[in-house]
Write a structure and sequence with these properties.
single chain, seven-stranded antiparallel beta sheet, globular
Length: 254
């Protein structure tokens, strides 16, 4: 994506046109349906509030700040190490800066990429489904499914190579509630670190000043599989093992 500092573990894409959507007449029927469902989900989760955004929160003993306005973003991460040195990372559309105890630190390009990936992934998941309208995202409606007595739309997400980040080959599945249009479940097939598949279930749902937030239970399949299309049935049939809880706390929306 042009004029953006793009580094991504989960094909996290932050271009100026991230939330813009025009239904392309060349899209298939399943792609058009998926786009309509995602548009509705984004509206339900926060809509235009994502475009002019200022939040902060804590995640795994680190403090995060995120600002977005007119396609520009500024993400910050603040934490201390065991020797009480304070680290402050600042990521924008076109730069990354780390300070240690208030002084700018020299950071190699490789570490800049790693730190930026880490910050991006945290912001990406807390603001889902907002980033699913990025131009590099390809969405397909693949059917419906019942999970825990609720009806869901299933949306498969893949990424274009151009603008899709270094992990553009990763694949995601999102389950959008047919009645509420909330994103209650997701699964992903990733290729890094020898690859694997994981799924998440939203819980502790809360809305703060018009933005919907959720924590997630993180699962892996009991029987090894990378076919995320089957994960809805695994939710139904106790085919998943809980690995961890992914919790964002002390959320403030300005």
């Amino acid at each position: 994506m042009k004029n953006c500092f793009i580094v991504s573990t989960f094909a996290i894409l932050f271009g100026i046109s991230c939330t813009e959507n025009t239904l392309n007449p060349e899209l298939s029927a399943s792609q058009i349906e998926a786009q309509k469902i995602i548009d509705k989900a984004i509206e339900v989760h926060g809509g235009q509030k994502y475009a002019d955004l200022k939040i902060e929160f804590d995640f795994r003993n680190r403090h995060y700040k995120a600002e977005r306005k007119d396609g520009l973003f500024k993400y910050e991460r603040i934490f201390s190490d065991t020797s009480d040195q304070q680290y402050h990372d600042i990521l924008t559309n076109d730069s990354f800066v780390r300070t240690i105890d208030g002084k700018v630190a020299e950071v190699t390009e490789k570490k800049q990429s790693a730190y930026s990936n880490s910050i991006n992934s945290v912001i990406y998941f807390i603001l889902l489904p907002y980033f699913l309208n990025d131009p590099a995202v390809m969405k397909d409606y693949v059917g419906d499914e019942i999970i825990k007595d609720s009806d869901y739309h299933k949306i498969n997400v893949t990424f274009k190579k151009e603008g899709g980040g270094k992990d553009f080959e990763d694949e995601f599945m999102y389950w959008i509630n047919k009645k509420t249009f909330t994103m209650d479940y997701l699964a992903y097939n990733y290729l890094t670190d020898e690859g694997g598949a994981r799924s998440r279930e939203a819980y502790n749902i809360r809305t703060i000043k018009g933005l919907r937030f959720a924590d997630y239970i993180n699962y892996k399949p009991i029987e090894k599989t990378r076919d995320i299309n089957t994960f809805g049935k695994l939710f139904q049939n106790q085919g998943l093992k809980e690995l961890s809880k992914i919790e964002s706390v002390n959320i403030i929306v300005y």
